[in-house]
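Collaborator request, handled under Task 6.
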Amino acid sequence: MAVTFPFVLLILDYYPLRRLDGGPGGASLSRLIVEKLPFLAIAIAFTYITIAIQTEALASFRELHWYERPLVAARGLGFYLYKFILPTGLAPFYRANTSPVGPSDLANFAVLSGITVYCILTLRKKRLWTALWAFYVISLLPVLNIIQAGSQGAADRYTYLPLLAPMMLVALAAAFLFEKAKTAKRMPLLRMSLITLTSACLIIAMMYSTHRQIPYWKDSITLWTRERAVYPYEPLAYNQLANAYLKNKDYRKAEFYITTALQLNPRSTKYYLIRSEIYMDRGQYSMALKDIESALGISPRHKKARRSLEIVKSRMSRQ
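Structure tokens returned to the collaborator:
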């Protein structure tokens, strides 16, 4: 998300610095853009490097058609706001949702459009709203599947910076309500107490939610068991569990989970190679050979599969 840094600086110039309106260090729009060019050059360089080194992850992105990308991006914008308001069903991986447009998408589009139109109409009068919404959207742009490294549609870790915008809005709303209650003519103390109590309850609820999430991140097994609980038909969960048990030399469980992953996604070269590795470690070379051949049937030029084929044939020739 660091690639959005020059654009975030422009948002700060707009509000709260108001540099376009003669604020401290005021300048024309063209001057402000020129100031950000060095940061933009660095951002472009890092973007190119990221794309160049993640060719394997980007291969899954090419499965998305161009017309699906705006839909998935819009779903991402709404998804993060929804999880901010109601942080339940959190998981380490959310696959990109490419299902046809449904009623929830229409509701999502209405909310996003409503916020955007309101910000445009109040561009001059209420700059805070526009600045916060622009910050939220722009800081999320690199991870909204328009250009994506991987098959995820969203990830909780992507929200660390973007959710500063709605959090600031909530904090300012609480401060505004408290000041209103403080100057109220009727029962100001009771009103302030209610606002304070409500804020305290929200903070305690968030602390409790965080406390419940921490154990899931103990290790790979607990983490991906959580993924399986939330999304029982997600093959990546079973793949990662297989990797974790393989690392622990628990071949029985590793084989069970990777076989389940293959049942959910039988066209995965990666999953066949993982199971072949399990079979090779157990000395079951004929079964390993069968899985490697299945992997090559899907991806004939897969380098790792070709190397694995050479290794398993070499071991079989020694028997």
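The cover message to the collaborator said: "The mean pLDDT is 90. DSSP finds 14 helices and two strands in the chain. Please let us know whether this matches your experimental observations."
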